[in-house]
């Protein structure tokens, strides 16, 4: 029986792994249809009175919707849809108290594409973009705290 060279075997494994990664990433942004919007969370060591206005400010800055509303009773921030061509986007965030010093923010950027059957949830915002939004919210929280001083 003839032996397969180690270099050839290594190259075959690398090629197989590359094909697998390419297949996983082949779905372009906006092509993935979702049954419900993505939601990510982040915990902040700040009071609600700083977090909710900070989220509203980031929504306005990033264009995640018009007419941003804060509901202090339900501890949410929501915006109306922003329409562009056949796509509409809005931001929704809710805050849950973790303990005396921490609050957890649950964030969804809801993006829908108009199709023949109505509006379908699509993924236009990846996890890395959510992390950037959370960083902006953190910066805004510090700005809100500074305003009070």
Structural notes for this entry:
This protein has 149 residues and is α+β, with helices and mostly antiparallel strands. The protein has one domain (32-148): Alpha-D-Glucose-1,6-Bisphosphate, Chain A, domain 4 (2-Layer Sandwich). It is built from three helices and eight strands. The chain has helices at residues 6-24, 48-62, 127-148, and strands spanning 33-34, 40-44, 66-71, 76-80, 82-84, 87-97, 103-115, 118-122. Strands 1, 2, 3, 4, 5, 6, 7 and 8 form an eight-stranded antiparallel β-sheet that branches.
Alpha carbon gyration radius:
21 Å
**Strands, total number:** 8
How many helical elements? 3
C-alpha end-to-end distance: 80 Å
Q: What is the mean predicted local confidence, pLDDT? A: 83
Strand content: 25-35%
Low-confidence stretches: 17-27
Q: In CATH, what is the homologous superfamily?
A: START domain
Task: Report the major sheet.
Answer: 8 strands, antiparallel
Series of H and E elements? HEEHEEEEEEH
Structural class category: alpha+beta
What is the highest CATH level, the class?
Answer: Alpha Beta
Integer tally of domains: 1
The CATH architecture? 2-Layer Sandwich
* Overall shape: globular
CATH topology: Alpha-D-Glucose-1,6-Bisphosphate, Chain A, domain 4
Measured as a percent range, the helix fraction is 25-40%
Write the layout of secondary structure elements.
Blueprint: H1 6-24, E1 33-34, E2 40-44, H2 48-62, E3 66-71, E4 76-80, E5 82-84, E6 87-97, E7 103-115, E8 118-122, H3 127-148
Antiparallel strand pairs: 1-8, 2-7, 3-4, 4-6, 5-6, 6-7, 7-8
